[in-house]
Amino acid sequence: MIDPAFDRVVADLLEQVNLGQTPDDLLQTVYDRLKGLVPFHRVAVAVLEDSGQQLRLVSCRSDAAVALQVGYSDPVAGSSLEELLRTGTPRIINDLGEYLARKPDSRSTRLIVREGMQSNLTLPLLAGGRPVGVLFFSSRQVRSYEQSHVQLLRPIAGPLALALERSRLLSELQERNKELLQANQLKDHFLHKLRQEVRRQTAALENSLKRYRTLTRLGRLLNSSLDARQVFLSTAREVGHLVPCDRMSLVLVDPSSVTRQGFAVEMQDEPRLVELPSRELSGSAAGWVLEHRQRRVAPDLDTARPFAEDRELHALGYRSHVCLPLLCRDRVVGVWGLAARQPEQMSAWDLDLLDELCPLLAVALDNAAAYGEISRLKARLEQENVYLREEVRTGQGIPELVGSGSAMRRLGQAIEQVAGTDATVLILGETGTGKERVARAIHERSPRRERLMVKVNCAALPAGLIASELFGHEAGAFTGAIRSRPGKFEVASRGTLFLDEIAEVPLDVQVHLLRVLQERVIERVGGNQPVPVDVRIIAATHGDLQQGIRDGWFRADLYYRLNVFPIHVPPLRERREDIPELVQHFVRRFSERLKRPPRRVARRTLERLLAYDWPGNVRELENVIERAMIVSTGVELEVDPTWLVPTRATPPPASQALLADVERRTIVEALNRAGGKIYGPRGAAAILGLKPTTLYGKMRKHGIGRKPLQGHFE
Q1: I want to staple 362 with a disulfide (CB 3.0 to 4.6 A). Which of 210, 292, 326, 337 is the partner?
Q2: Check: CATH 3.30.450.40 for 223-371?
């Protein structure tokens, strides 16, 4: 038997529907009036939306905090409520924990279980036989609901469904009324708008002739110069007569850089050109224009200043700002900015005119940039040509590292290890040990060998000119700088830069070198435009850089950047076993260069050379051999003892053994070069400057046979 109190609840709900109460008000009544009549701790209503495809929770009442909140939405398709809405059959779940274990993907079940609910009764809400939503009753006790509760609660579903349908229809009616109101307003204003359009079109026609004349005049001005600053200054003067602005700026775009640079014209009695500080494009107004490729208007900087440029202009007294992209061949070449000291200064006509001017200015700037690039490349090629002529004059080619001793083998191994990489190399060694030859050997074995290796002797440059020599300079940077000139970093582009005597670089220039190593970017002297460089750096010094760090004349951070792969070139006194080979090498070289016949190196001469300490290292030995080739008149190389200060009168036994080994290797090398032939102008005897009989005797002494072993002598 139905409790009379329940009948009164249904009657009150129907009365509330007639009075126009909302579904949320009705659910509050259900929650308040059914306590004690039906077991529940939570009651909620969800409505069908998107043509019945989505179910959204619109109202909820609970005795505690809720996890499944109003606004939660789930698709109907594939859910457990799909069949309930299709058939109109209520559903009872008397153990939500067990149900969730079977269907772990049910998010709504998981949320109400988190609230502590253990059982659930779901009733479909039908209006005109069509489902419009569902009504949920949930209890903290398992097995709280039976079919009797379904029969008891069915009458409540009707009023709630009517309220939901009435709310939907009322919302649709209000939307249609709003559309009708807007249509009426459009109708009322149609004639007014038509009159405005006629006036606007008339004004546009009157302005078209004036605009055409302006564009023609500016086109002539923009094509009259290939200098970007002159182009922009001409534009500023002409546009300043048409657009009420107090400042124009131009940001130039370099695709290879993440920073911006440019200049501005202050519109005074005589326009004044000022440089803009370099800054990153990311997060700037110019960056926004570049990204969106559309103009940006800031009509009132007093109320909104989202970008750094806005704040800087506002601090300078400007109150409105416009940025426009400059596009040429579908590529952004710059950003044109205009600023005024009064807010809302730019009118629609002004902006339309500026939009039409942008392509003209973009083409002129692109032409100026192309001309500048051509000029820069021409200057770099001129510098490369000068360097190549100097290289040819000094006879530089692929270096030959002479010597087969253990120290030279270790040096050769280090060169092979680092040559194929782009790592920075620091070559350490005494004066005259051949540090430049080591640098050239690394370059010629690297992927950059097809490009230049540019050498800079830092010790030979005046302190005031070393920055200009390395980084280049702009015209007017200092007295005598009549035109721009690329530095050694630009000349060595995609090649190798050899910085000899790096310890002689002043501290102020060391800062710039550190930036190049860190960022691969330089700035010319007198310029503010970053120039990216792709250069491998090899540095060399005979000084103690670590002592320089302690004494304060060399930066520690630069040292660590240079010391990526240090190579020590041993002094000649530490590789005496290579002296005979070096002597033969220099004899052959100076024989060709001086047009003299080859000289034979006597044993006593070789012993004297082996005994000397060579403080000038290989360079000193080279000079001694050249001098000897000049003064020698016979078949033997004559080295005056007064040229050397011997450390020992005669070589010790170890030197005797070393000399014998060197002599044997020299003979074997000559036999291999001559293909085993001893007699004749190309025989081994002629190569060594010996009589054939003498060579035979030495071969017997060292156990060298006539026939080669496996194709060569050993």
Answers
A1: 326
A2: yes
